[in-house]
Design a protein that fits this description.
Chain A: InterPro entries: Aromatic_CoA_ox/epox, Ferritin-like, Ferritin-like_SF, PaaA_PaaC, PaaC. Chain A: This is Phenylacetate-CoA oxygenase subunit PaaC. Chain B: Its EC number is 1.14.13.149. Chain B: It is an enzyme of class 1 (oxidoreductase). The complex is a heterodimer. By secondary structure, chain A is an all-alpha fold. Chain A contains 12 helices and no strands. In chain A, α6 packs across α8. Chain B has helices spanning 19-29, 42-61, 63-67, 76-101, 107-115, 133-153, 159-187, 191-210, 222-227, 235-253, 278-288, 292-305, 307-331; strands at 263-265, 270-272. Classes of the chains: A mainly alpha, B mainly alpha. Chains A and B meet through α2, α3, α4, α7 and α8 of A and α3, α4, α7, α12 and α13 of B.
Chain lengths: 287, 332
């Protein structure tokens, strides 16, 4: 795969001009058109934030303590905010006149690029917390690496998101430890959650052609490069929580296509049916 | 107005008061704030616990009708705004439970009374939110009615309650504006959106008027609460103010207030309007509103399902404390 042109070089103008000529109408700015891998990568970032934010927001008003209601709403808000930035940039780079809302509300499941882990149902509060922790520990490493992205827009979004996610990880790790090393029941629930979710962690570190192109262009790290740091964080927290990851587990989306390729669990369709209802029922209405 | 029908304890004439009670009433009359560790009549304390507790319960139950639309919000921005708003409600609940704790009642005790049906929350949250326009109507009308009551409560006599109200009012006025903003967008939108907005007003108008509680002539507990400056205005005063403020806002939207008898009364400088159906109000308070079972059920389920989580954290804290003690002994 040839390396992608650097976003900041002057040939942007030429690319944009070409895209405009191709698109046949002049109203749509298309500075980054012709770079499907970059769009794909940005959708992965945005979709992870959108779908996890959706799941977390489902707890609103139903959490086990008032402080948790507040914290979860905050986390969902952070994620929806990040999603707006990533999908907004995806739409801009794509240059087809779509915006973040069009991407969130008018794509079908097969066009979503989020990891399977984030679309899994909330389960009990233990599953929700463990899912959050396993993702946060990955998310933080990804964002740290993206702060050095060759694309300054990516680096800027990552710098903002990293501050939020550092707090998400601090919180989820702390609760995993307390509940793992808590009562008999809380430990059993956290262990069950870990065992259930472990099969969805492998997909985070799979490198594919899109990742290769992003890495070659200096835009994003290879996901596999994030694994050692994730392993260290997870091992330290699980150890303190007195929990054990399954030694052997089938990993969904590693040898078979997963969410990054648009092959999802049955759950995503229901999320979208709910999330997209108004946009689908009243096409073109403004809200 | 998130506290309705709050039963007030004992009403005494000045001649029947003890010297302590007279001194207390004089402080209130001088607009001094009463602080947690200061002496207060038992009736004042109990009435405040009821009122603040009911208000706190209303905030947390009030998350549910709006939480109902978070996952279906029509744009990312609307979703973020609604999330932030519902999060604010939870925060208000937290301030208020903390204010109640200063009166010697724990949050868990208050929640137990909510769950067992021994304490109420505002009747308004027992109505369903059926369309997206209801997110507009709830912000505009329900938060608007709440503000009518809460702005004067910033001057209430009990210090912690007054300070909680000051913070809450700042956020509530944003909530009302975001609700009105949704209504403006809907009313300027497609015919279907405008119809949704009108339908939301039709359904929420009278329940919003009920939020102020029964008419003054039927409101038996007001006098003592007003003397203590726990309640600052009568129900009818606030309701009138709300109608006078809201009718022009409805006109601006091009919506019709669902009251054929609504008309401007030049002489009193306010609108004449129809009373809500008070039999409906009492039915909802008694548990027979459209969503009473769902709302309370959701709160009880959240509490019960979360027991292991809270117990787990307590168990960890106990273990960590034990380990710290052992380490200290070993070091000595």
């Amino acid at each position: 795969m040839p390396s992608l042109p650097d976003m900041t070089t002057p040939n942007l103008t030429a690319l944009a001009g070409q895209a405009l000529a191709d698109s046949g109408h002049v109203a749509v700015p298309a500075p980054d058109a012709g770079q499907p891998e970059f769009v794909e990568f940005l959708q992965r970032m945005g979709d992870n934030a959108l779908i996890l934010g959706h799941r977390v927001s489902e707890w609103c008003g139903h959490a086990p303590a008032l402080e948790e209601d507040i914290a979860l709403a905050n986390q969902a808000l952070d994620l929806i905010g990040q999603c707006q930035l990533w999908l907004g940039l995806a739409a801009e780079v794509e240059g087809k006149g779509r915006d973040a809302d069009a991407l969130a509300y008018l794509r079908d499941a097969g066009a979503f690029r989020n990891l399977l882990l984030v679309e899994l149902p909330n389960g009990d509060f233990g599953v929700t917390l463990m899912r959050q922790f396993l993702f946060d520990a990955f998310h933080i490493e990804l964002l740290r690496a993206l702060k050095a992205s060759a694309d300054s827009r990516v680096a800027d979004i990552a710098a903002k998101a990293e501050k939020e996610v550092a707090y998400h990880l601090e919180r989820s790790a702390d609760l995993v430890i307390r509940l793992g090393d808590g009562s008999e029941e809380s430990r059993a629930r956290m262990q069950a959650a870990l065992t259930k979710l472990w099969s969805y962690t492998g997909e985070m570190f799979v490198d594919d052609a899109v990742d290769g192109a992003m890495s070659d262009a200096g835009i994003a790290p290879l996901p596999s490069s994030l694994k050692p740091a994730w392993d260290r964080t997870v091992a330290a927290v699980l150890d303190e929580a007195t929990l054990a990851a399954p030694a052997e587990a089938w990993q969904h989306g590693v040898k078979t296509p997963g969410g990054k390729k648009g092959v999802h669990t049955e759950h995503l369709g229901y999320i979208l049916a709910e999330m997209q209802f108004l946009q689908r029922a009243y096409p073109g209405a403004r809200w | 107005m998130y506290a309705q029908l709050v039963k007030s304890e004992g009403s005494k004439s000045r001649e029947d008061m003890t010297p302590e009670e007279i001194a207390f009433q004089d402080r209130i009359d001088r607009n001094e704030k009463i602080e947690p560790k200061e002496w207060m009549p038992e009736g004042y304390r109990k009435t405040l616990i009821r009122q603040i507790g009911q208000h706190a319960h209303s905030e947390i139950v009030g998350q549910l009708p709006e939480g109902n639309w978070i996952t279906r919000a029509p744009t990312l921005e609307r979703k973020a705004i609604l999330l932030a708003k519902v999060q604010d409600e939870a925060g208000h609940g937290l301030y208020l439970y903390c204010a109640a704790e200063t009166l010697g009642v724990s949050r868990d005790e208050l929640l137990e009374k909510l769950h067992s049906g021994n304490m109420k929350y505002s009747s308004i949250f027992n109505y369903p939110t059926l369309t997206w326009a209801d997110m507009g109507a709830v912000g505009w009308l329900v938060d608007g009615a709440a503000i009518m009551n809460q702005v004067p409560l910033q001057r209430t006599s009990y210090g912690p309650y007054s300070r909680a109200m000051i913070r809450i009012c700042k956020e509530e006025s944003f909530h009302q504006r975001q609700g009105y903003d949704i209504m403006m967008k809907m009313c300027a939108g497609t015919p279907e959106q405008k119809a949704m907005a009108q339908d939301a007003l039709n359904r929420f108008w009278y329940p919003a008027l009920m939020m102020f509680g029964p008419s003054d002539k039927d409101s038996v507990h007001s006098a003592q609460s007003m003397a203590w400056k726990i309640k600052m205005n009568t129900n009818d005063e606030l309701r009138q103010k709300f109608v006078d403020q809201t009718v022009p806002q409805a006109e601006y939207l091009g919506l019709t207030v669902p009251d054929p008898d609504l008309k401007w009364n030049e002489e009193k400088g306010g609108y004449d309007f129809s009373e809500p159906d008070w039999s409906e109000f009492f039915a909802v308070i008694a548990g027979n509103g459209p969503c009473n079972a769902e709302r309370l059920g959701a709160r009880v389920k959240a509490w019960e399902d979360g027991a292991w989580f809270r117990d787990g954290l307590m168990a960890h804290a106990a273990k960590a404390g034990e380990r710290a003690r052992t380490a200290r002994h070993a070091a000595e």
